[in-house]
Amino acid sequence: MLGAIFGDIVGSVYESHNVKSMDFPLLSWNSQPTDDSIMAIAVATALMNAWGKSDDAIEKELVRQMQAWGRKYPYAGYGGYFAQWLMSRHPKPYGSFGNGSGMRVSPVGWLYTNLEDTMHAAKLTAEVTHSHSEGIRGAQAIAGCIFLARAGASKEEIRTFAEEHFQYNLSQSIEEMRPTYHFNETCQGSVPQAIRAFYESRNYEDAIRRAVSLGGDSDTIACMTGGIAEAFYGMPEELKKKALEIMDKDCASAVKKFQTFCHHLDRRIPASWREDVFQVSEEKCLQGNWLLENAIHRLYREMYDGDRKIPMTDDAKAQKLDRVYEAFSECIQHERHFLVPIACEEEKTGFLGKAFSK
Fold first, then answer.
1. In the chain, N or C terminus with fewer CB closer than 10 Å?
2. Is the pLDDT of residue 324 over 80?
3. Which region, left, alpha or beta, applies to residue 33 given φ > 0 means left and ψ of -120 to 50 means alpha?
4. What is the value of pTM for the model shown?
């Protein structure tokens, strides 16, 4: 989860002073962990303490640790309702769909060997406060993406997971969003953006820069992006060292304890994870079809409004078709077999069919 924490630290300076550019100092004298990091540490501590116990015991430990860490760091920047929850003698879920559930969930993505357990644990960490369906979805989406990145999924597979399992629209690029994107603390208004920043990235630092450059709730978006990027790319040693140096002794100690805990678990992910997640056909000749079918399905969604074809230039069509070509490339690079029927009569195939025929 150190990748998520470092993203939070970088974004902390820019939350109130957005920078709509990727060219900015990665760290400043006042870069620091915020509530995102404190709550991620609380979740990690709770999951370690309640490992192997019942859901009820896990939720009680989550509440206990979140309140304990929150009260220890009362000025970390909590939202109003959550700050009240932290101080409550009888804390109850309050139906939030804020991105607090997504910012603290990164430890979940590192602990389990299958998606089902990951999704279940993410739900538990969310619903002690963020019991709204969107709050739970946001936590599950980030944890699921981290799990897939750990498993060796491609970016295209991670994007497909987010779009198909959670109905998030990831079609708009960070560059397209950046000019008009504003502060949005909801899961539905920040989780897709965080995943998109990862999807476009070239390495861990590039992912963080893209997330921060979007503006808005910069620390939380960078925290969520950073969690996925760490699992996918790994994290440069110098950035790990800086993150631990910036944190105080207790936070750094908790992070190291979680890393040791993960190291000693048997977290080997079965080779069948892809079939379990995407319901890939057992037929060898069809094992690449799910990726192509999803890409083509998204293409039609973007090109048609019901039965009505959306007017667009040939260049715009070609850009959208690139997603389908990327899916083909993905299948070929990973030696996945697939079958795609192609009609040859031009008048019956339209733009898509002509492109495939070529």
1. C
2. no
3. beta
4. 0.81
